[in-house]
Amino acid sequence: MGIKYFNTSNTWSVAATPYTAQVALTTSLASNALIDLVETLSPIDILEPSSSLPTPSTASVLDAGAGSGSLTSALCARYPTVPILATDFAPSMVAALDARHLPNVRTHVLDSCVPHPEILRSDSFSHVLSSFMLQYTYNPHGAVKEMYRILRPGGVVGLAIWTDVAINWPWNEACKRLDPTFEPVKHFDESAWVVEQEIEAALTEVGFQEVKSEAAKTPLRFESAEEFANYWFNSKNPGMVKAQSAWKGNAEDVRPMLEKVVREQWGDGKEFIMSVGLTVGRK
User: 97, 191, 194, 222: which is deepest, by most CB within 10 A?
Assistant: First the structure.
């Protein structure tokens, strides 16, 4: 089922605007934690001693599966002179990123799971980062291999994944209250990596060294139960569309109970705590 809901560029394109408005803050907090971990292996803003600007022999960053640009924006805020290439397979996500007009950022619509030697040369990036992309791809192993190919020797990869999708809990609870026989669907495909150890094993397998991970927490905030419900039903986020598919009937019929569950658990001013796994390694 993961292939159906997650792995088409159109599926993510239609979710670009609400995703940018609601989820981007959450992913930007996790992105900064990922950058911090990457920096423990290799600083991104290394400069030539004789120059005040990055040169081809210093920092050059790829943000793979950039979405609407949370990680790209975090990188630009810290390193405004470092050249960044941001890619995603969803054209509307790339358009949303382009609309930010970030300095020293180029964008390209492409699939990170397959090689693109005509666009991404081997041994060309000092850092390759990716936040919350690998779990939604049809070929995560291919994506990791491609990251290894395009990194320079000594270059660093940094990856972030969700390890607990807390935002699904209110929906599942509401459905169970209305129908005790309700069976929720899994958010990720059976083959998706959902713990840091799986990422570590994949990186080690393709040749990365000094592989290590950290766990992090990041909040997803809503002003009210109604705002949460509106996002849940209207965002067209593929994960939420997939969750709603398990309800046998009109999903909108669950809205009142969904709002009730959210109010009971969080009151007004919601903050869902999302668990994140961060993993880095050196080529």
Answer: 97
Q: How far apart are CA 272 and CA 184, in angstroms?
A: 19
Structure token pair of residue 208: 């990365």
- Distance (Å) of CA 235 to CA 13, 26, 101, 231: 11, 16, 24, 5
Read off the pLDDT of each residue in 158-185 and give the average, rounded to a whole number.
93
What is the number of alpha carbons within 13 Å of residue 85 lying toward its C-beta? 18
Instruction: Report angle CA 180, 234, 273 to the nearest 5 degrees.
Output: 65
pTM of the predicted model as reported, rounded to 2 decimal places: 0.85
In the chain, the percentage of residues whose pLDDT exceeds 90 is: 61
Secondary structure class of 193 (helix, strand, coil): coil
Residues 6+ apart with CB under 8 A from 25: 221
| Cβ–Cβ under 8 Å, residues 135 and 192 | yes
Determine the Cα–Cα distance for residues 232 and 85; give it in Å rounded to an integer.
31
User: How deeply is 196 buried, as exposed, middle or buried, from its count of CB atoms within 10 A (0-12, 13-18, 19+)?
Assistant: buried
At 96-123, the pLDDT tens digits run 899 999 999 999 999 999 999 999 999 9
Q: What is the dihedral of CA 225, 227, 233, 236, to 10 degrees?
A: -140
The whole-angstrom separation of Cα 85 and Cα 71 is 12
Mean pLDDT, residues 49-57 taken together? 47
Please count the residues of the chain. Answer: 283
